[in-house]
């Protein structure tokens, strides 16, 4: 239950062995390849080739080609696109609550499996591209068919053109002007004109204009007044009805071809395993190639700069000794702690708290792993705020089902494991307060028998509605315990670092003050409190300079008194959320009991408690997180650590197991 000790690895090996070594280290999953800074790069250049200068050195030490990385990224994108196509037709990988199927590395990267994967991706994407082409053609023809709709009633070839003497045009006029009026105005302008109405919609009237060219000017003068707009019929031949029938036949053929392709895609479920394997292969390759780009090459060798857990180094050393290479392994210096990646090592009880720590920030290397120090408080506080046996049972049940059935890894495992631990705490606190979906059981028994005076089979320690003040005092007392625990950790850390005066006047002094206040409240001698106040005054005098000796006294008093008072008061949220959750559950149960019908009561209670459970599930987590991060961590926690991200075989769909 600590921060794993890291060792810095500098490896020099032959370039022909580079791929084999990278595959080896990726399979072991315990080496993080670091990208050397320019300063480190220059130092390595100088150590390797001191006789070369400037640009000559740069020519000798280069970065590996990234073409393989780009190729793997394209393969990953194609595989995911193919999986997305099948998902559209209801063919999906196993759900989040199903365990991943297992494969060995040799099975995943077998030549036959690689070929099948590439062919599967190509088959799905080619079929989808053809389907998209046909759907595009379908849309184009549908649009053409729609453009012919206004002219269907017109039994005139659409390729009709003007002659030397006659003008023929298709066009539209505004439907705001009655068509008969337009015709009368045209006839008044000339007798050598005919305007035929094809159709009318809300805005336009679609017309065919035929007139003698001798009266063209007068006719268009009238048409301009009614918004005439010419429409070109392009390459159409035949009447609108004839073209519409031809387009309809083309759409029928396209519909049939599209349906066939869709059925073909719907039947490609047997290709899904190959697609998922192709995606995972690409993911593994991307991870390896991204690390490969951080290496440095000479003409004959390559340099690897990285980190390895100290506990795994003997294993890595044994494997590297199989290759002609040289390495240098050192413990990081204290001034280099900021660049050392952080890996936490916890047991089954504290490991789930990693999701809380990572949400805030990992501890700095050389600091304290907060998970063991936080786990008891976080789980207890969550149970206090939720405090209901029914809710606790639901949380435990969800945790057990998911952990057993899905066997999740990483963050998902931490979430459901923490849910189960908090569920146990919630159930225990619910048993102490007598809450089971609020007062569901007493209300139900009263509906069944109005004379019922049901009480729990065991006496409740306290109830939120009757012992609110007691719960408030207890919440702040628990807060004081957590704050003192944080101060104790800080005290030990300062003593270990040699900062004795800081430890004495920051932590020890205020412990004495707290004890003195407690003794005075119990009507015992105030001497200890006076001693604590003397130390409060002495602290700034002994540690500050000049005027700071005086101002530091008032600053210390103000900051510590208001700080500790505000921190302890924040723990009143434990009582507030317990009370709120209990009251909301009872309100819904009371509303459900008003009609006097058992079925209605159960229905309203289920809905209300479901909403209350969902609200508290998130609300309790947020407030619990706040207590840990703001009131607890600020006493001892040094954050800012960067996570340890080794080169590994990380997959989405399959679990890689040892052969």
Q: How is the secondary structure organized here?
A:
Elements lengths: L1 E2 L2 E9 L3 H11 L3 E2 L4 H11 L6 H6 L6 H22 L13 E3 H4 L2 H38 L17 E9 L4 H11 L3 E8 L3 E9 L3 H10 L3 E3 L8 H27 L5 H21 L3 E2 L3 E9 L3 H8 L4 E6 L10 E2 L1 E2 L8 H7 L1 E2 L7 H16 L2 H17 L4 H24 L6 H9 L19 H29 L3 H22 L5 H17 L4 H23 L2 H21 L4 H35 L6 E5 L11 E3 L2
Parallel strand pairs: 4-16, 12-15
Antiparallel strand pairs: 1-13, 2-10, 2-11, 3-10, 5-7, 5-8, 6-7, 9-10, 14-15
Helix pairs in contact: 4-6, 4-10, 6-9, 6-10, 7-8, 13-15, 13-21, 13-22, 14-15, 16-21, 16-22, 17-18, 17-20, 17-21, 18-19, 19-20, 21-22
Helical percent range? 55-70%
Shape: extended
Distance between the termini: 30 Å
- The average pLDDT score comes to 89
Helix and strand composition category: alpha+beta
Q: State which percent range the strand residues make up.
A: 5-15%
Given as residue ranges, the uncertain stretches (5+ residues, pLDDT < 50) are none
Write down how many β-strands occur, each being a DSSP E stretch of 2 or more residues: 16
Task: Please report the number of helical segments.
Answer: 22
Q: Give a short account of the largest sheet.
A: 5 strands, antiparallel
Radius of gyration: 39 Å
